[in-house]
Design a protein that fits this description.
The chain has about 70 residues and is mainly α. About 90% of the residues lie in helices and about 0% in strands. The chain contains 5 helices and no strands. Helix 2 crosses helix 3 and helix 4 packs across helix 5. The protein is flat, with a radius of gyration of 16 Å. The chain starts with a helix and ends with a helix.
Length: about 70
């Protein structure tokens, strides 16, 4: 819900900092609150499903992206 409420600020703070300055979005708050939201999500998911599944959910997308980019570069 928080991500939906502040979608523009999160999008600009992560992908286009110069554009966010031009539009007037609050970059500092978005830049600091996003890691806090991620940390809270990780803590809640560890309690819900366990550490092994959380580690798998965090590392699988990055490993897949690395394999896909390495395969397309070759």
């Amino acid at each position: 819900m928080v991500i939906w409420a502040f979608w523009k600020e999160f999008l600009f703070a992560t992908f286009d900092p110069l554009g966010s300055r031009r539009v007037g979005a609050e970059r500092q708050r978005a830049r600091l609150s996003l890691p806090c939201l991620i940390a809270m999500t990780i803590v809640v998911s560890i309690q819900a499903v366990g550490i092994i599944l959380v580690v798998a959910m965090l590392t699988t997308p990055a490993a897949t992206a690395q394999l896909l980019t390495a395969a397309s570069a070759a």
